[in-house]
Amino acid sequence: MSSQTSQSCTGFESPFGLSRRTMLQRFGMGLGTIALSQLESAKMVHARDGVLKEVHHPPKAKRVIYLFQSGGPSQLDLFDYRPELEKVHGQQLPDEIRQGQRLTAMSGNQASLPMVKSPFKYSQHGESGQWISEVLPNISKIADDICIVRSMHTEAINHGPAVTHMQTGSQFPGRPSMGAWLDYGLGTENDDLPAFVVLVTKNKGGQPLLTRLWGSGFLPSRYQGTRFRSGQDPVLYLSNPQGLNAEARRQMLDRLKDLHELKLKQQSSPDLESRIAQYELAFRMQQSIPEVTNTADEPEHIFKLYGEAAKNPGSYAANCLLARRLAERGVRFIQLYHPGWDQHGGLVGGLRNQAKETDQASAALVMDLKQRGLLEDTLIIWGGEFGRTNYCQGKLNGDNFGRDHHPRSFSLWMAGGGIQGGVTHGETDPLGYNVATDGVHVHDFHATILHLLGIDHERLTYKYQGRRFRLTDVHGQVVNQILS
Amino acid sequence: MRFVIALLLLFSNLSLSQAAKKQPVDFVRDIKPILSDRCYNCHGPDANNRQAELRLDLKEDALAAIGFEGRRIIHPGRTHRSELIKRIQSTDPDLQMPPADSKLTLSAEEIDLLTRWVQQGAAWDNHWSFEPLQTPIVPKTKNKVWSSNEIDQFILQKLEQQEFEPANPAQSNTLLRRLAFDITGLPPADELVERFERDSSPESYAAIVDELLANKHYGERMASTWLDVARYSDTFGYQVDRDRYVWPYRDWVINAFNNNMPYNQFATEQIAGDMLEQATDSQKIATTFNRLHSQKVEGGSVPEEFRTEYVADRTHTFGTAFLGLTLECCRCHDHKYDPFTQKEYYQFFAYFNNIDEAGLYSYFTTSTPTPTLRILSDDQKKQIAAAEMAIASEQTKLNQLAKQANEGFATWLQQRPSEASALEAVEILGLEQELTFEDFKSGANQSVEGKVGKAIKLSGDDAVGLTVGNYSRNTPFTVSLWMNTPDIKERAVVFHRSRAWTDSASRGYQMLIEDGHVSVSLIHFWPGNAIRVQTKEVLPPNQWHHISMVYDGSSTASGLKIFLNGKPAASKIVRDNLYKNITGSGGDNIAIGQRFRDKGFKQGLVDEFKVFNRQLTEAELAHVADGNSLSTLLAIPTADLTETQRQQLKQYYLSQFDEGFGNQMAALKAARDQRSKLVDGAQEIMVMADMPKRRETFMLSRGAYDQPTEPVTARTPAILPASESGNANRLTLAQWVTSPENPLTARVFVNRIWQMMMGTGLVRTPEDFGSQGATPTHPELLDWLSVTFMNNQWNTKDLIKTIALSSTYRQSSEVTDNKLTRDPENLYYSRANRFQLPAEMLRDNALLTSGLLVDKQGGPSVKPYEVAESFKPVARGKGEQLYRRSLYTYWRRTAPAPVMMTLDAAKREVCSVARERTSNPLHAIVLLNDPQYVEAARKMGENLIKEFGDDHQAAIAQAFRALTSRHANQAELDVISHSFKQQLTYFQAHPEETQQFLSTGDAQRDTELPADQVAAMGMVINLLLNYDECVVRQ
Q1: Is B231 inside a domain boundary?
Q2: Nearest residue, CB atoms, A15 vs list B16, B597, B994
Q3: A286 assigned to some structural domain
Q4: How far does B604 lie from chain A, in Å, by closest CA?
Q5: Within 10 Å of residue B451's Cβ, how many Cβ atoms?
Q6: Cβ(B342)–Cβ(B702) under 8 Å?
Q7: Are A252 and B979 an interchain contact pair (Cβ–Cβ within 8 Å)?
Q8: Total tally of structural domains belonging to chain A
Q9: What are phi and psi of B477, to 5 degrees?
């Protein structure tokens, strides 16, 4: 995926400051010193550099798999064990805890806000003794590989702004997503596949997702995530038209190339050369993408590891397995989404169901990468956009209660890629409402991820509308305590 | 290879810097961008962030500033005495500028430039784009023959300075194809190609330019660009992203361009069309421009947070679209680079902060967010006017009946019951339901001692539901109750008949406590389509009050009253603009004390709750409150009645017993129902309409909706020529924008037209004309075009024609190695730019040449194949919906048409003024396989086989011509024929696959024709639809 003029159309770049990559694009193919046949096979043209000529420090992670749990998983029922809530169960949320903080307009007008304990049992796991709830038996098994951050906090109180914040560093639309930033900064290791792939669990209700979550914002659009679909065409219109086989297509592409070369003979033209290369790349993608998405060659024990659902394309488990295959092939950023974590009511059943869909495959991915030696340079992130309240939304009727959105504290876990396993970072107050120690803001989370990839978050910038934008805006501190 | 590039890089930098050294340093071109980019973050306009009290954005400050040891910061002509030069040359981390923690650096080249600038006397100019427009002198050039008009003189002057030759003129076919796409977004018609081949004289060319500009497709092409600016979308955006009705705005844009509406009027109508004298519907629809931002409905959102975002979006869009300014940069603090303060941002904000809008649209209904305009035909307007007349006439008759002497009343007055037994039985008619709360159980609500027996004490979370109350806005009704509030409530729902609060924009009616006052409302969409009255006094807490809500069915605030303890309460009108139904949203019956996601009447007491299906008279209302007023009144002998008492009895009589009056009431209601029939179903569109009383605007700390600070009023910024009018509003803002003194408006628009015609703007950052934007490559040309444009009544077609007629435009896009090396960005326009056609043109080209295009202009959006493949798929349309121009493709903001996205269409989340151009293998994949393109290919193949039969050579030649606007040469024909034969062989061997291929898409196929030939010819077209000359504007 090479570019002709993307820089000049979206941000002003001085002609003095052409990067090596830009030079390659602008002049490299225009020199007439390389035969076309060489051009097509030369790997150096295929692997695309990022804007950073070199990373800022040695990276611990080379790629990221972000298992986004959309909807706001209830941290109090999964990772943030707050036994004190058992004592105050049913009592009103004290004002001194709430500190006048704004609530959503869903429960904000409730006349009563009774606190509610977790209906699930917690126990300690692994040598590290991390507390994990009973609904996640498989993630419990990898307790020593993961770092649980219990002191995440954010600002937004509703899904749209909150997910956008987690993915782009801003609550409001228009900024590039994390994957786009990394593609822009680091480029790709395998140009036969997109550098930033998005996998969404299919047929899952819950809060809607938006394409902007994996969009490129003001960065050129080629940095946007490519969503792989679960159907016949992983990429839109990847397959040849009905009735046309690969051979006929190849013949047609050969003639197209002949026609282009006739034109090239009359007049050298770098962008025509780029177009010729583009069609070759497209043809290769027609093979490379189905090759990676077709998991039929995986042995039975792998399906066992990820769960039977992994045989069902588009399921979370299948997407986890696909994420591993993409990681193996050098895809930089693999973004999964699993919606449905929005338990405003019916939390007990709802959460069990969510856990059932994700627990085994999430743990399997970590174990699988580990056994392949890929975990050490692959960063895995599991988490949502905010947490849930320690008080009940609606009426507290036995077990059928719900929790509202809660930005003041939530939990996520990370593994591999320079993250210290078996560590719990940060703490909330005994009632699980506010962060008590070692708070990690969304911007800090982003700064840390970039750090693991060898990037100083203050130095990966893009100039747009006169300003140098960063993923972390003007904030962000690397969370050094959780680095290995 | 890397070595070669390194050499090349070295060489190119060398040649550029040598060229640069020849000329003196230019402040605007060379110095200001460096100061702005590396220094202004700490030494710029933002006062709060300024270091060492030094600012380098203003000449006086910068040249007067004193640094260390009394040295001046900038000492013109004396570099060693200039602190700035010392600091930028220093390697001492304590002294070095920019400091290390800024993560900014200066290159050796830039340090050299700054040093030479000081050496040469530190000349200083103000920022170019804020300087007044003056007509520049058209330069003289050595070459006297190349220029066709003034544009070329400006271009040629720079080319001669750079020792570049202009490119040869483009071949006539190439030029015509370029021109047709640039102006109409479609390839040239065959007839035009032939005509221009016969006669390619300048006169013939000029005539064709005129013809294309007069073509109705011109408006569509211009609109597809402007819709990016207007962030047009058929849906609301954000998460839920429902459909909205805004396409009449798109039609307005198309028509405006086709009618060549002067740009100043085009801008004025969109900014403030509603405020023009006797504004037409069309002028109001133009203001939909301001409402095309995303809108929110997600449950639990804070309305004011999003309303603030809407106003901000309007402000930013206005800034980018008309002024090329990045106003969003000063929302949270003073602008870092441009001379705009945060206060000035909110002064702009104030212009757009005065419409009666909600922060959320309605989840449970399809009400159009206010303010709105009803879309009505002339016929409908006439019918509505007639209905209004009928209402007025029936109302007059009713008033007369009430006023005039009435024999029946006199008789009744004599015969009215007066004995005690009858009086006790006085019955108020129309009672539909009554709750006395004796023996009453309801959720967590409690039964407590009440005003009469027991009352209910409300939890605030549990509603008490009734079984009645679904009144239309034409039905008079009365609701009365005893209530007792424990405290002065900021907000509490006493009772309501609605589905929800913000989630249904409160549609229905309601009684609330607001800051201790009682308010009653009838609402279609709060706040812009509703009536509300509120008591002037705060209701004292901890005592019982009898309150009635009384409504006369008139849809006006004067017909809605609050009675307190039997008497009319002193009230004020809060809203008086109800023009649509209040029913049909669900929540059909009255509920007491709680509403979905609203604040309930926590710990409030309610007793004796009564609902009447008529407007009670004053005497009855007093009676409901005290249980004896009417009885007492009825007992007074006729002779002893005061005039007031007499009138009260007359009202009571008319309302209860007079048949003629009753009939007239029914006639009035029927007239109102007739109006409802006409208007309640009418389509509405969001427009601008200012509230009579200005909403106060405050500066917002860090831009946050909940942190207002200083109040501000609408005003234009100090750095730009002042607005003349005293009473600033959107109309004066539009006048200011389109004033000839405004240095930005014409420059910004002219630059975008140049960009549209030439591929890149004279200012390469069309979205930013500020300090951080690019300086114009040809400032004098930009000014000449801008001044000429304004002097020519802002005539857009003429502007385009002037550009099209220039030799600059007509150059070939072929490039020499020398030019590519020395000017890779084509900053000097020494050739035409080559680039892939925008998404819309690629598809429209395929549709047109295959004969599938449905050439219908305007109307609702359509759903071609690709919308079914979007991330949020919607069912695709059928028939002509599949083949309209891409401009009409349904635009879903959070999941736009996926092929358009792949092909670099703008995202339209926010205003955007330039498309990106990327080269991406996914483009190839779409153009090769998308059924829309494959269908077009097979249809065109079919047409060719039908026309040419077995003469495949002729068919191929014709196909090539149709898709490239030129004749193929023999070598090209050979390649294509080769391809045809290969494909024919394939299809002959695969008859079943042939049928599959030919059934791509909905279009009917001609089964009489030989399938294998049609399919093979289809693949020839598929090849050509991917051929460079077909998809590239060159």
Answers
A1: no
A2: B16
A3: no
A4: 12
A5: 18
A6: no
A7: yes
A8: 1
A9: -155, 165
Nearest CA in chain B to A264: B1028
CATH number at residue A383: 3.40.720
Instruction: Confirm whether pTM is higher than 0.90.
Output: no
**Tokens standing for A217?**
């914002």
Give the whole-angstrom CA distance, residue B120 versus residue B59: 16
Q: Which domain holds residue A378?
A: 63-236+298-482
Q: Note whether residue A37 is domain-resident.
A: no
Which of B 556-595 lie inside 8 A of A, CB atoms? Answer: none
> How far is A472 from A100, CA to CA, in rounded Å?
27
The dihedral sign for the CA sequence A301, A304, A308, A313: negative
Partners of residue A337 on adjacent β-strands: A68, A200
First-last CA distance in chain A: 35
The amino acid sitting at B768 is D
Q: What is the pLDDT of residues A289-345, one digit of tens each?
A: 999 999 999 999 999 999 999 999 999 999 999 999 999 999 999 999 999 999 988
Q: How far apart are CA A88 and CA A97, in angstroms?
A: 13
Q: Which residues contact B403 (CB under 8 A, 6 or more apart)?
A: none
Q: Which two tokens stand for residue B911?
A: 């205003």
ipTM > 0.90 (yes/no): no
User: Where is the domain boundary, B106, B124, B142?
Assistant: B124
Residue of A nearest to B1012 (CA): A243
Query: How large is the greatest C-alpha to C-alpha distance in chain A, in angstroms?
Result: 84
Contact B212, B183 (CB under 8 A): yes
A45 lies in some domain = no
State the amino acid at position A307 in one-letter form.
G
CA A339, CA A350: separation in Å to the nearest integer?
12
Query: For residues B575 and B519, is the Cβ–Cβ distance under 8 A?
Result: no
In a domain, B86, yes or no: yes
Q: Which residues contact A415 (CB under 8 A, 6 or more apart)?
A: A142, A145, A146, A147, A366, A375, A379, A380, A382, A421
Please report where in the chains the tokens 């990676």 appear, as a residue: A292
Any idea what the CATH number is for the domain that residue B513 is in?
A: 2.60.120.200
Residue with tokens 């009635």: B548
**Tokens representing B406?**
């009435």
CA–CA dist A240, B997 (Å, integer): 10
The residues, any chain, with a CB within 8 Å of residue B791's CB and separated by 6 or more, are none
User: Which residue bears the tokens 């006539």?
Assistant: B172
In this complex, the residue of A255, A260, A466 whose CB is nearest that of residue B1028 is A260
Which residue is it, tokens 């890149």?
Answer: B760
- For B122: left if phi > 0, alpha if psi spans -120 to 50, otherwise beta; the answer is left
Which of A31, A107, A221 is nearest residue B918 as measured by Cβ atoms?
A221
Nearest to A212 among B328, B894, B992 (CB): B894
Domain that holds residue B53: 2-124
CA distances (Å), origin B394, targets B390, B533, B557, B666, B672: 6, 25, 19, 10, 10
Asked if residue A56 is part of any domain, the answer here is no
The tokens of A21 are what? 């990559």
Q: How many domains does chain B have?
A: 3
Residue B327: inside a domain? no
Q: Are B360 and B350 in contact (CB under 8 A)?
A: no
Gap between the Cα atoms of A232 and B756, Å rounded: 39
How far is the C-alpha of A481 from the C-alpha of A426, rounded, in Å?
Answer: 10
| CB A274, CB B967: distance < 8 Å | no
Q: Which of residues 407-426 of B touch A (CB under 8 A)?
A: none
For residue B958, give both structure tokens: 């014709």
| Long-range contact set of residues B720-723: C-beta below 8 Å, sequence gap at least 24 | B720/B130, B720/B744, B721/B132
Residue B725 lies in a domain: no
- Per-residue pLDDT of A1-55, as tens digits, reads 333 322 222 223 332 333 333 333 433 333 333 333 333 333 333 456 788 878 8
Last residue of a domain, one of B98, B124, B150: B124
Report the alpha-carbon distance of residue B966 to residue B958 in Å, rounded. Answer: 9
Per-residue confidence band for A104, with pLDDT thresholds at 50, 70 and 90: confident
